[in-house]
Amino acid sequence: MLIESGKSEEFDIPNDQSRPMSTNSIYSIKSFNKKTETIETKKSKESKPKKKSGLVIFISFILKNFGILFVVIFYMAGGAFLFTILEQHTEIQNCQSGEGEWNKLRIDYRSQFFNYIYFNTTPNPWLPVDNATKEAGLYVEKDGPPIYDPILTEWIKDFREKLLNISDTLKYTGQDCEKQSSWTYFSSLLFTITIMTTLGYGHVSPATAEGQIVCICYSLLGIPLFVISTVKVSSLLGDLLVFITSNILCFCCRKSNKNENNHQLEENSNEWNENEDKNIITVVNDDENEEQDDKDERFVPLTIVLVVFAGYLMLGAYIFTLLESDWSLLEASYYAFVSLSTIGFGDYVPGIGKVMSGNEAEGGKNLLIATIYIYIGLAILGMCFQLIQDQIADKVGSIIENLNFCKKNENESQDESLIRSHSDTANIQKEKSNLHNSQIEVREATIISVKPKDESSC
Questions:
Q1: Is 50 left (phi over 0), alpha (psi -120 to 50) or beta?
Q2: Which of 223, 339, 244 is nearest to 236 (CA)?
Q3: I need a labelling partner for 228 at 20 to 30 A (CA). Which of 156, 238, 338, 407 fits?
C-alpha cells in the first residue's frame, strides 16, 4: 500500500476493502447472506398469525360457551346409568320377596276366613234342625252377627296392616316384578336432575348402602356443576333476550329516540353557532352519552321479563296436559311452578305412573321431556333474576348518584356563600382602610391649609 501508517487517520477505508478478497470468501459471504435471508423469512412466516378455519372457530365457540353444558349432560347421563345398576337389581329382589310374602299372606287369610264362615256361621243344609238332632248332639249353635262381626273386623285390620308393611318395606303393590321397575334409565335421569337442582321429588330414593353413598358423592360434585352451567346458560339467554328486545321489539322506540337525538343535534348546532359568534365555548360530555347508550342497549323492561317467565310456565302446563291425559290445566300449571321454584313436593311426576304400569317407552319419553323442561326453566329463571337484579342495581345507583349530586350542590352552595361572606368582609375592610386613608389625607390637607406664612413674606 502507498498510504503511510501516519496518514491512516486521514482516510476512512473499511477493513473489507483495504485488501483484495478471494473467491472463497465471496462465496462464503453469499451463502451466509442466503442463510440469514432464509432465517428471516422463516421468522416472518412464524410471526404471522395463522388463519383459523371456520370449523375450528365454530368448535372453539361451542366449547367456550357450551362446554360446561356438555359436561353436565354427560354427568347426568352417567349418573342415571350408575343409579340404575345400583338400585334396579335390589328393587327386583325386594319386589319378588314381597310378592312371595303377599301370596303366603293371601292363602293363609283366605283359608282362615273360609273355615270360620263355613263352619261357625253357616248352617248345614243336609242336617235338619229339630229336637231329635239337638238331643243327639248333632246340631251346634252357629255364631250370630254379635259374635262374628268383631272377629272378622279384627282379622281384616290385621290383614291390612300386613299388606301396608309389605308395600312400605319391599315396595310391592301387585306389579309384575320382571317388567315393571321404578328405577328405569329415564326415571334415574329425572332422579339425577332432582339431586343436582336440589329439587327432591322423592318419587324414587336409593335403598341400598352403595346407592346412598354414591348419592352423597354425586350431589357434592353435581350441585356446583349445575350452578355453573345454569349461570352460563342464563347469561347466554339474557344476551339473546337483550338482543331481541333492543333490535326487534324496541325498533320503534329507537327510531323515535333517533329523531329526538337529531332534533337535539340541530338545536346544539344552532346554539354552537350563536356561542361562536359570542366567543363562548361550550363543553359537551360524550362519555355520559356513551354510558347512557350502553345502559339503553342492556335495558330490558320488567314486564317483558315477567311475560317470558309466565309464558314458559304456561307452555309447560300445556305440554304436560298433552303428555298426561289425566292431568288438568291447573294441575299441570301447579307441577310446572312447583318444579321451577325448586319446591318439589313430588305429588305429581310425569311418566312415573306409565313406567310403573309397564309402558316404559311412553313413560320414559315423558320423564325425558320433564328433565329437559326443568333444566331450561331453571336457566330462564336465573336469567330473569339476573335482569331484574341489573335493573335494581341501576336504579339504586342512579338514586345514589342523585343524592351525591344534591350533596355536591349543597356543598357548592355553602362554599359559594362562604366565598361571598369572605369577599364581603374583605370589601368592608378595604372600604374601612380607604376611608381611614382619606381622613388622614384630609387632616394633612387641613394642616397644610392653616400653616402660618413666613415672616419674610410679610
A1: beta
A2: 244
A3: 338
- Compute the Cα dihedral for 258, 262, 267, 269 and give only its sign: positive
Per-residue pLDDT tens for 46-98?
Answer: 555 556 677 778 788 788 878 888 999 999 999 999 999 999 999 999 999 99
pTM of the model: 0.65
C-beta of residue 185 within 8 angstroms of C-beta of residue 81? yes
Backbone angles phi, psi at 180, to 5 degrees: -110, 120
**What distance in Å separates the CA atoms of residue 237 and residue 240, rounded to the nearest whole number?**
5
Q: Establish how many alpha carbons lie within 13 A of residue 335's alpha carbon, considering only the half-sphere containing its beta carbon.
A: 26
CA torsion sign for 264, 265, 271, 274 is negative
What per-residue confidence (pLDDT) applies to 370? 92
Q: What is the spatial distance between Cα 358 and Cα 355, in angstroms, rounded to a whole number?
A: 5
Weakest-pLDDT range from 61-70, 284-293, 350-359, 368-377 = 284-293
Q: Which candidate, 226, 227, 232, 183, places its Cα nearest to that of 74? A: 226
In 3D, which of 68, 360, 333 has the Cα closest to residue 227?
68
- Which cell is 181 given? 321397575
Q: What gap in Å lies between CA 74 and CA 67, rounded to an integer?
A: 11
Residue 231: count other Cβ atoms within 10 Å of its Cβ.
15
DSSP secondary structure letters along 324-393: -TT--HHHHHHHHHHHHTT----S--TTHHHHHTT-HHHHHHHHHHHHHHHHHHHHHHHHHHHHHHHHHH
Q: How far is CA 1 from the centre of its chain?
A: 88
Which three cell numbers, joined as nine digits, stand for 382? Answer: 336465573
Termini Cα distance of the chain: 115
One-letter identity of residue 422: H
Alpha carbon distance 69, 184 (integer Å): 24
> Which residue type is seen at 175?
Q
Q: Are 46 and 171 in contact (CB under 8 A)?
A: no
Determine the Cα angle at 229 with ends 395 and 78, to 5°: 160
Q: Say which residue, 376 or 286, is predicted with more confidence.
A: 376
DSSP assigned state of 122: S
